[in-house]
Structures are given as C-alpha cells and as structure tokens.
Recover the amino acids of this structure.
C-alpha cells in the first residue's frame, strides 16, 4: 500500500492527499537512492567532517528514492505522462556516456535534436517547484503556470536556467538562496545532472551551460543537429551554491 500524507499540492494548490514524488523522477536513477536529510546549517558547520573523516549524521537514513510528499496523485501523474519521458531519456544517455567514455573528461558534447526540449525544461521547472516551499510559487506564479500549461512556451526574461553534468559528490536540494553575487538562485544536483535557476540576474553564469532557450523548442529546426556542451563538476560541498571544488581543493582549505 502506498504511503500518503494530507497537505497542499505544490502544483494544483489543493489541500488533499499527497503521494510521494521522486525528485528527480524515479526512472532517472532515483529508484533506490539512500540519503540523509540535513539542515544547511548542520552540513555547512560539519561538512569537512562528513566528507573527509567519515562522520555519520545523527538523522535517520532515508531510503526508496530522493523526494517528498509534495504532489497529489493527479499532478504526479500529469508530470509523468507529459514531461518525464524526455528527462529520463537524456539522463540515461548522459550517464551511459560519462561511464563508458573518457571518465577524466571535463565536458561532453551531445546532440539533443531527438529530445523535446520544452518538455525537458518544464520537468526541470517542476523539480524546482517541488524542491521549495509553497511561498516559492506565490512569489513566481509564472513558473507554476509554465508547468501546468503544457502549451505555454515563453517565460519572463527574469528566469534563466542552466545545466551541468555531475557524477560525484553530494545531492543539492534545489532550495532557493539569496546571494551577493548571483542574486536569487536555486541549484539542484542529482546524478547525472545539475540544474541552476537564476532569477532577476541579467549577467550570464559562465561556468554552466544556459538552457533557457529550450523554451523555444517549437521554433527550432529539428531536422538538424542541436548540439550542447555540458561541463562536468563535482559537488562535494552542497552549500554554498555553485561551489564546484574537488575533494583535494576542499581538503587543502582546511
């Protein structure tokens, strides 16, 4: 029997029975994920002990996939039927290439002409919605409408999305942060991808590949190759955002 909880669905906003939403989708290598849920304050304070000295968190280890009770069954099914397929397909391609080709490579090139990039961007947006609290879409209802309306193509220019590859390090949970340099930013990392949503920042983040243009998928010529180059980064330090230092770099800063 599936476990459920009563709460507010982050998509339809109904106070109803919520099902467990795998974040990212279960079919994208998130079926049996084991992880600890820690506050940012706890991890930031003890990060080097966790990373280098094998310190075990005092919280219970979660099993069965990373996610939360954030969607009703109807909205969960909607995402699964409309957007998950392209996310799963790209995740499998990216993981296979990183594991089978040059593992020391810092970046990989893909032809993404056979993916529905608009649907992929909508699934990424849904991940950020589910990763944050209800106030997030109260502040930015356009993101909610973008996911709910499968035909909606254009978002405000204040939203910029980025992507990178990840094969080592910690999960980054997608919570929004307010930074001096980047402004408001959310970063979600779960192998094989990392995603960044930057809000109200006109300056491009150069370390990661911008995918905001995926919203214009229906205007693209799909008969031609659509190339994208994605950098690969480790995420040993889950906070602050966009910290891609290696274990060696972190260790040398102790």
């Amino acid at each position: 029997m599936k476990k459920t909880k009563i709460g507010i669905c982050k998509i339809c906003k109904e106070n109803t029975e919520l099902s467990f939403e795998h974040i990212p989708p279960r079919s994208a290598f998130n079926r049996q994920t084991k992880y600890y849920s820690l506050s940012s304050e706890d991890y930031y304070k003890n990060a080097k002990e966790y990373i280098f000295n094998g310190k075990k968190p005092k919280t219970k280890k979660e099993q069965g996939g990373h996610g939360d009770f954030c969607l009703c069954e109807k909205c969960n099914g909607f995402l699964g039927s409309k957007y998950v397929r392209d996310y799963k397909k790209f995740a499998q391609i990216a993981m296979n290439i990183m594991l089978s080709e040059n593992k020391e490579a810092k970046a990989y090139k893909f032809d993404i002409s056979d993916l529905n990039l608009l649907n992929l961007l909508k699934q990424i947006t849904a991940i950020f919605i589910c990763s944050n609290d209800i106030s997030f879409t109260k502040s930015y209802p356009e993101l909610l409408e973008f996911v709910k309306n499968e035909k909606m193509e254009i978002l405000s220019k204040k939203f910029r999305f980025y992507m990178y590859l990840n094969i080592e390090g910690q999960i980054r949970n997608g919570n929004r942060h307010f930074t001096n340099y980047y402004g408001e930013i959310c970063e979600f990392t779960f192998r094989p991808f990392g995603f960044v949503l930057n809000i109200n920042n006109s300056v491009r983040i150069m370390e990661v590949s911008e995918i905001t243009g995926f919203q214009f998928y229906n205007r693209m010529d799909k008969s031609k190759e659509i190339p994208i180059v994605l950098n690969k980064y480790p995420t040993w330090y889950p906070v602050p955002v966009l910290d891609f230092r290696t274990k060696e770099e972190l260790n040398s800063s102790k």
The first strand starts at residue 5 and ends at 8.
